[in-house]
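Comment thread on ticket #2218

A.B. wrote:
> Attaching the input chain for the structure job we discussed in standup.
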Amino acid sequence: MKKSISNSQKFVDSSNYRFFGHKPTAQIDSNHSALLFPNWIWEHNCCLRLATCQKQSFYGKYVPNLEIGNEGGERLKNPFIRVPYLNLLRNDKLLNSILLLSSILLSLFLLELAAWWLLPPPLDGSSNPADTCSTITGWQGKPHYQTTVATEDYTHNLTLNSQGMHDTEHAQIKPDDTFRILLIGDSFVQAVQVAEPETNHQQLEDWLNQQAGAKKFEVISGGVGGWGTGQQLLYYRANGRTYQPDLVLLMFYMGNDVKDNLPGRGVTVEGYNCYTPYFVQPSNQLDTNPWFFAPGLTPTTTQRGAIWKLLNNILGRLYQSSRLYAQLEPLLSTPQLKASLLDFYLGENETFSYALDLTIALVNQFEHEVKVDGAQFGVVLIPPLSLLDFSQLSPAERETIYQEIPGMRRAEEIPSPNEMLDDRFSTLELTVLDLFPAFAEVDPTGQSLYFGNDKHWNQAGNQLAGETIGEWLWQERMVGLRSE
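C.D. wrote:
> Ran it. Output below, let me know if you need it in another format.
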């Protein structure tokens, strides 16, 4: 049992103790906070040498049955000796663990500093110089970015606004007598292939204001290249809803938005990877809080416990700020989940089926959160150029494709991807516009709607999309126009 000691009992006077006729080589240091016993052994449930310990700090303890001895094994037992500040020279596992952990953390801190200041980025360049990393969506447009884009298809000046969007500036507070529409999507909404006045969101705004009376329409772009539905939902939660939109339109691109909701997707920004957070739907129940991708850990698509998710997200968050972790990433192996629109026809990829069900659940959750905010919600399906081209092939041309890819023959038996999505979204009582019919009606031998190499809408495609959406909103009575 430990006993307290008074100030008068704090210090041991070595002259009071003799060891076989000799004073023990014990001294009190000048600060009266330690005893020096070089080359002596202290025993208290263990035995430790002091030969390598020129100065040992002790904390006040009352130690019964303390033995002092020399290296020859001789012992002098001094029961109930009060030793100043004795924390004990013993094998303290807790203390050793703390020291070990402290050493590891200090080493990691120094390595982190070296990674920040001394090591070059582990990767080369950027996937897109207009992107910057985001802790919310993985990546976003770079605020106030300006450049001249020049490709085989187009050349024009590109300017992103303060939010990193290809749009003009918009005040957070909605002006009076203004109906706000927020378009959220990927590169088709961002529309860097054309100048800002030619984008589909601006074409929609212009068309609505031409038809409107006293009411003013304002259309805000919330599109970034490569974003999936999960990222678009995260953007709405953090930024989109702050604009107080009256209507939110989710611009869904059938070409890749399904697979873009799988984990492990990222872009490279100035030599470092930026990964998107992802959602999980185990047992057909959507987890509405995102997971953060952690290189080296296998992404989950099944039910995992709260502790595992917490550890995963700690590592995922750590990766977003750690240059040391980023340097180690090329050495880490992370399984990749893959799917494509072709899997819709082949019908053999369980990953695609999971991604499709997850996407439907995300859109349903998106609508729920928008309506909770008091706004309307609608989905616009964007057809990929490959799907339009396929629909216009002759039977003989289709047969050639079926010979090369036998699984594609199912296209003659099942609904097209846009019809399938329209049906599933409508089952959830969502308001849906499929742009496929409007784009398919345009004579492919006449005016093109897509850039040939880029596969995105050109000026005519953006204009057709904007005007078609405007007419649909009017017909669905989602907006009020003068002609009503």
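A.B. wrote:
> Thanks. Noting for the ticket: The chain has a mean pLDDT of 82.
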